[in-house]
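does this look right to u?? 5'-O-[(L-methionyl)-sulphamoyl]adenosine version
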Amino acid sequence: MSKYITTPIYYVNGEAHIGHAYTTFIADTMARYEKLKGEDTYFLTGTDEHGQKIEESAIKNNKSTAQFADEISATFKNLWDEFDICYDKFIRTTDEDHKRGVQKAFEVMYAKGDIYKDFYEGHYCVSCETFFPETQLIDGQFCPDCGRATTIVKEESYFFRLSKYEGALLKHYADNPDFVLPRSRTNEVINFVKTGLRDLSVTRTSFTWGVKMPESLNDDKHVMYVWLDALMNYITALGYGKDDANMRYWPASIQFVGKDILRFHAIYWPAFLMSLDLPLPKHIGAHGWWTRDGEKMSKSKGNVVAPKEVADAYGVENLRYFMLREVPFGQDGDFSQRAFIDRINSELSNDLGNLLNRIIGMSEKYSDYEINSVDVQKYHKKELDAMNIVLDSLDSLMQQVQAHRYLEELWKLFSIGNKAIEEHAPWVKMKNGKKDEAAATVALVANILAKAAIMLSPVMPKTTNIIADALNFTIDNISYRELVLDRKLLKLFSIKKVPPLFPRVEEPLMPEAPAAQPVLLKEESKNTIESIKEQDNLIEIGQFFKTSLKVGTVLEAEEVPKSTKLLKLQVDLGDGRIRQIVAGIKEFYSAESLIGTQVCVVANLKPAKLMGMLSEGMLLAAKDEDGLSLIRPEKPKKAGTPIG
Ligand code: MSP
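got this back:
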C-alpha cells in the first residue's frame, strides 16, 4: 500500500520559523520512516501564495505580489533543501497545474450543485482570511483566532454547501476515531460541527491575487477563496485536474497541520473531498504550538526563532531530535536553549555518542577494530531479548505519531548497551583470558548501535549514516529488514574510527531571546535603530494621523438586549451629529454609570453593524487580567476635541 504524507503549505508572507520547521520535521521523519520500511511513499510540501494577506505583505515590502511570492517561496524551498528535507514535490499555489486543478474541482462541485451564488455580508479577518459569525467575535469586533480587528465585508460570493455535509462528517468522525490525531483533539472538531455548519463563502471579489474562476462559469469578478485554493494542493500535486499521474497515492496516509488550522483540515477539507467523491485522508495529525522561553513568538517582540540560526549553531539534526523528543505530539512545546543543550549533552552525547566511542575504543584495544557477532547469542541472550522487545514496540508508536515516545523507547537500547558493558566488564574478561566473552559483549553493543541507528535514521539521517559507516553497513530497506525485522546480527566486520558525533555544549550558542518589554529608543547604535525600524508593527506618523481620535460625551447609554457584552451609547462628538456606538463593555460598566461621562472615540471608522445595530465608532479602552478600563481625558474637554 502506498503512503502519502503532507505538510501544510506555508504562507509566503514571511520567512520560516521553528513552528514551520517542526511541522516539516515531523512529516519528513514520517516519510523517511515509511521509505525505510520500503513503502512506496510520496511526501509533499510547498507554499500557499494567494490572498489578501500576501498582497498586503508585498505592498509593505514594495514589491509586486508575484515577485514577493517568488522570493519568499524560494526561501522556504532553499531552507528545506539545506535541511535535506526529502520531499518528492514542492508545490506552489501559483503553479499553473495547481490553478487548473482548483478550477476543475470548482467545476465538479458546481456541477454537482454544491456551489451556488449569493451575497455575503460578514465580519472578515484579513489575517486569518476567514469570515466569522458575529457570535464568535470577541467584544463584537475582534477575531476569535488572532485577536485582530475584523472588518465588515459585503460582497457577492459563491458558496459551498458545507451545511449539507454536517451529518456525513459527524458519521465519519464516529466511524473513524483516529481520523484526527491525537484523538484528544477530535472533540473540538465534533463540537464545532455540532454547533451547526453554515455554507462557506468560497470566492472573493475584494482582491484579485487568487485563482481565477473556471472559464465555464464566465465570471471574472471572482477569485477563489484562499483556503479552497490551498487545500486543493494536496490533490493537484498528484495531478488532479491534469493527468492524475500520481493520484494512486490518494488518500493521504497522514496530513500534518498545526492545531490552529485543524478546523480547515478536519471539516472543510473532508467536506470538499466528499463533494468531489474522493476518499478522505486516513489521518489529520494536529500538533501544538511552539513558544520561545515560554513567550509567544512574534516579529514585533523580536523573539522568533529562525530555524537556520538554530541549525547553524547546534546542527539541524540535533534540532530535529530535540523538537521531536521534547514535545508529546499534539501538545504545545517550548524552545529554550537550556532544555536543548541538556538533551544534547545527556541523551545525544552521553547515552549515544559515548556508547559508540566506547565500542570503537574497545574494538581498537581488544581486536584491532574487528567485530565478530559469532558468540553474541551464547553470552547475551538476555540483552538480545530485551533489545528485541524494544524494537518490536517502535512501529506502533510511530504509526500513532508518538515520536517522543518512540525516541524514549529507542533510548532504552542504549541503556541496555551501557548496562551490558558495566555488567560484563570486557576489560576484566580480557585480563582473565576470556577473549571470546569480551568480544561478544563488544559485538552485542555494536549490534545494538546498528539497529538503533536504523530506527533513529528517520529522525537523524546524516548522523546515523556516520554511525552505520563506522559499523560498516548501510542503512536502507535491506538492512532494516535483516537487522530489525529478521533480527539478524551484523557479520564479521571492521569498525571505522569516527570523530565524536555530539560534542558537549557548555553554554548557549545563540544570543538569548530579547526580554519581553517594549522597545525604547535611547542612545541607540544605528544597527539597533535599523532593526527597530524593520519591525513590522511600526507605522509612519502620517499613518497614525489617518485615525481621527476625539473626545466624546456620552449622552445616553443602554444595554443591548440578549447581549452579555454590548452597550449601546449615543455620543456627542461636537459636530452636531450624535453618533451611535455599540461597545463590548457591558461586563465592566453599567449603562447608567456612563451617562454624562467622557470617552475617547475613534471617530472615522467605517460604520459597522453589531448584532444588527449600526455602530459608528470605537471607544478606546485598556484591558488586562483585572478587567477593562475606558481611556478618558484627565480633565473634562469640549466634545469633539481632537486627541493626538
Ligand atoms: N497557509 C496555511 C496552511 C494551508 S494548508 C492547505 C497556513 N500557513 S502558515 O504558514 O501560517 O502556517 C503553516 C504551519 O505552521 C501551520 O501548521 C501552523 O500551525 C504552523 N505554525 C505556525 N506558527 C507556529 C508555532 N509557533 N508553533 C508551531 N507551529 C506553528 O496556515
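Confidence is low (pLDDT under 50) at residues 517-536. idk if thats expected tbh
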